[in-house]
Design brief:
50% helix; alpha+beta; 203 residues; 8 helices; 5 strands
Length: 203
């Protein structure tokens, strides 16, 4: 059966499999088998692979695979620049995570970090996982006003646009968003699902 994936898509999937898996050879071959990768001598278009990786925000994750390719000087600059930018952003987020959770803890507000660098810790190269904001889960909803005041007193401002019912967005001075979640997810139409989510929060 002919694959619906292009040669460039197959190549990117294979590169990501190698970058994300501990069993690099096995996982890469499984990806190739699953998508029916064309293993002919025709080289994929590396420019197209770069565009695909950029569009899906996974270029930095596959950095170690990209630098092995025979890229042009300009293409290599794009790869290196993207990886450096991602690492720098993640370091800023890591510092901000620590700072914000610290000031909230001093104010008696318990939070846990969602996604971001906590999730990145499970990656082979944590700093290459692209993140854009800080997500915090408030463990005690009665502390919401204290949390809001603590963040505002520390120089964070509540965003004018608050698009969600289950988190409040704050902006840092450098433009990084902090999402203070009061729920793991917005309420569902299904009451049983909402009850289950409440139980998870209490564990």
């Amino acid at each position: 059966m002919k694959s619906s994936f292009s040669k460039e898509e197959c190549a990117l999937l294979s590169m990501l499999a190698k970058s994300l898996s501990q069993n690099q050879g096995e996982q890469s071959q499984q990806i190739n088998d699953d998508v029916g990768q064309d293993n002919s001598q025709n080289e994929p278009d590396y420019g197209v692979i770069l565009e695909l990786a950029g569009a899906h925000k996974v270029l930095s994750i596959a950095y170690n695979e990209f630098i092995k390719l025979p890229l042009s000087e300009q293409q290599r600059k794009v790869v290196v620049s993207t990886a450096k930018t991602t690492v720098a952003q993640n370091l800023r987020l890591l510092f901000l995570d620590k700072y914000v959770t610290g000031i909230l803890e001093k104010a008696g507000v318990a939070v846990v970090v969602l996604k971001g660098m906590v999730t990145a810790a499970y990656y082979k190269e944590p700093l290459y996982r692209k993140s854009g904001d800080v997500d915090l889960l408030l463990l005690d909803k009665s502390k919401l006003e204290t949390a809001k005041k603590t963040l505002c007193d520390a120089g964070f401002s509540m965003a004018d646009n608050q698009p969600s019912l289950h988190h409040i967005v704050f902006d840092s001075a450098e433009g990084i968003e902090i999402e203070l979640h009061t729920e793991l997810a917005e309420p569902f139409d299904n009451k049983e699902m909402n009850r289950y989510m409440d139980e998870v929060m209490l564990q």
